[in-house]
Amino acid sequence: AQSVTQLGSHVSVSEGALVLLRCNYSSSVPPYLFWYVQYPNQGLQLLLKYTTGATLVKGINGFEAEFKKSETSFHLTKPSAHMSDAAEYFCAVSSNDYKLSFGAGTTVTVRA
Amino acid sequence: DTAVSQTPKYLVTQMGNDKSIKCEQNLGHDTMYWYKQDSKKFLKIMFSYNNKELIINETVPNRFSPKSPDKAHLNLHINSLELGDSAVYFCASSHLDREETQYFGPGTRLLVL
User: Fold this and answer.
1) A106: distance to nearest CA of chain B, Å?
2) Are A68 and A23 in contact (CB under 8 A)?
3) Does an H or E element contain B22, and which?
């Protein structure tokens, strides 16, 4: 079975500061990992994903994530936060029966 | 140019009623999903159909019945609505492969009174 743990249900950063959202996974098969963003009252939008190949993955809006097998982690970062980054962020792992298992989400607030 | 659309966007109804939520995708995907997001924003898969056949059926009350008339549509019918059914329901679609991105609809916010 696959599962995801997101450390920190809420992260508050200053505009221009580093954004770091933590995600650890467990998987019985090579993991395929995803980060999604949900803006208020909207659906989920893919930020980036890791399937195979390069372990540092770049996504939209300046976000990137690094797959570290030894640490079973897939943390999401952005060097400089913008007010528009305020949203809910979900890490997810794809199982071998095609299900996406989501973490509990991390709410990001950005202070001016 | 909407990719995954859902109707209605909001649904307020009384306990005991029967209601349906419709989902359509124009991405040419062969697989569609229903997810439930509870009040704590936790997302959990409910059902998945591939080419009109049920492939994922999580532990969901049998009051919930998905219907897929064709590859582009997956509707969710809920009988005898209960207070605990209040949630946001998301439809998604993808090609059937673990690495494929699932594209989500905007959600249907269901409130049962």
Assistant:
1) 10
2) no
3) strand B19-25
